[in-house]
Amino acid sequence: MVEVTLEQVNKNILVLKQEIDEIKEILEESRLEFTEEVKAQIEESRKRPTSEFKSQEEIEKKFL
């Protein structure tokens, strides 16, 4: 049987607590409402034809 110290258990609990806090933040963010301005921007972007968008290759040529 493997021996585990209280320090190791405490360290593991602290790591788990931090991970749970991060998960809670992500879940809280997913419940946020978009402002009317953001909703309008999304609608506007959806109306643009895909031919106006740059391809992955074009972006890579510019930045790589």
Topology, please?
Layout: H1 6-30, H2 36-47, H3 56-63
Give a verbal description of the structure.
The N and C termini lie far apart (about 55 Å). The chain has helices at about 5-30, 35-45, 55-64. The chain has one domain. The model has no long low-confidence stretch (mean pLDDT about 90). It has 3 helices and no strands. The protein is mainly α and about 60 residues long.
Keyword list:
mainly alpha; 64 residues; elongated; 3 helices
Distance between the termini: 54 Å
Tally of strands: 0
Q: Give helix and strand order, one letter per element, not per position.
A: HHH
Which structural class should the secondary elements be placed in? mainly alpha
Q: What share of residues is helical?
A: over 70%
Please, what is the oligomeric state? single chain
Shape: elongated
Number of helices: 3
Q: Any low-confidence stretches, pLDDT <50, length ≥5? A: none
Number of domains: 1
Nearest-integer average pLDDT:
91
Largest sheet: none
Rg is: 23 Å
Proportion in β-strands: under 5%
Brief description of this entry?
The protein has 64 residues and is mainly alpha-helical. The chain is built from three helices and no strands. The model has no long low-confidence stretch (mean pLDDT 91).
